[in-house]
């Protein structure tokens, strides 16, 4: 893809992912493209102080600079118009525009925090000036009325959350079925693989969903060629990441199986190197195959969700992450069950090795494709630390469940719903925040209202599921006190996830990191750990 690819928007300030280059690259305001006149007319009509660099009341001047300086033919395709997208750059000094290229710091860099009173207010303030001019093909988004926001969230988010609850329940049922199969009896290490695989795979799919939602809200999918290119690039990146995730999950499962004291698997029965290699090959082939195939399915679903929501006027930020989360878990478990049932019967054959070689070869090819894509290459090395954090914190949540499951039999069934809904409202909010930051059109009052509505939506869904679960499972003892404490715990969990989403997005953006690549794993990982601990406290208190 060329330098004007749609994925260019997925960078704070529209600059290259390199932190050093983003601070070194500066452009004089006088070199801007002709569409600056359009912005000037708007600015002088509504906010004259933005362009008044000599004002004593506005000592921190703000210059509008183009992200690309290449000369392009006027008749080039529509995607070349995207190259004119302009980013706000803090120049850090008074005077005329001729001096504006000396001390500039990109919006979203660490320099912004020095002149703002807080992360929240600062990031919202930095995002107020519109950059979606008509020449760029992007949608200019003005602040929505409160009634429209309430209606939009209620009509769009609540059904998506209900779908995610149904998906979590169904995923739990599928997991129970495959765990009783012969594959898990033959190789108990599959029990180790399931939670780690689901967590890591789900997070890279959520990242793709938020990236596509951001692009859709920037108007990229309004142009068919741009949308197709963006979809293909993000799918290639997702499949590459899933190959890495599947390989790591397989190796970790094999290592933990070797270190485990469990003697039921083949490697512990014969204590032979051959037995260990056979089991490891099955685990590695299963991890890679399940991750790649499952991610391909959810990648297509993410693209379909964005396209359909765009056609019907639905904000993909509101439905993308819950749908990806719920269907991702179900597809992972279904594919895992199918692969394990086949490969465990081929332990003594060459088929597991062939599967590994085939998927690793695909991974190498994908790496070369993504690496040569200038606008997607930086994603290869980004976002892995949050994935590791999510894996560790989710493992802690699993330990807590195991610790209290026997004492409180009703607790394990509530864990996926409490964690799932809280995590989903957090990722929905993060997706909306990321879009507003890329637009430079964030509104603090709107974000406050969105936080409140999402928190209120969380309550009836949680209480409704508790009542339904109590009806189908009489073993769960629920009195009035339990309902009150449970509701308070879910409110605290949801509030924590929304606060983390807001702080995380603004903190990452202020330091030049794209929230679409980083914030979701922090939300889901923290949500799993915190939600499980709070639920355990509910049972302990009541």
UniProtKB/TrEMBL annotation:
* Boundaries of every SLC41A/MgtE integral membrane domain copy: 194-337, 415-537
> Where does the record say this protein resides?
Membrane
Compositional bias segments (type: Low complexity) = 19-30, 95-111
Query: Is Transport a UniProt keyword of this protein?
Result: yes
SUPFAM superfamilies xref list = MgtE membrane domain-like (SSF161093)
InterPro entries reported in the protein's UniProt record: SLC41_membr_dom (IPR006667), SLC41_membr_dom_sf (IPR036739), SLC41A1-3 (IPR045349)
According to the UniProt entry, its GO molecular function terms are: monoatomic cation transmembrane transporter activity
List the record's Gene Ontology CC terms alphabetically.
plasma membrane
- Keyword vocabulary terms for this entry: Ion transport, Magnesium, Membrane, Transmembrane, Transmembrane helix, Transport
For the keyword rRNA-binding, the answer is: no
Residues annotated as transmembrane: 153-175, 181-200, 237-261, 281-314, 326-344, 350-370, 382-401, 413-435, 447-468, 480-501, 522-541
Superkingdom in the source lineage: Eukaryota
Residue span of region Disordered: 1-33, 90-111
Could you tell me the membrane topology recorded for this protein? Multi-pass membrane protein
Give the family, as the similarity comment puts it. Belongs to the SLC41A transporter family.
**Listed name of the protein:** SLC41A/MgtE integral membrane domain-containing protein
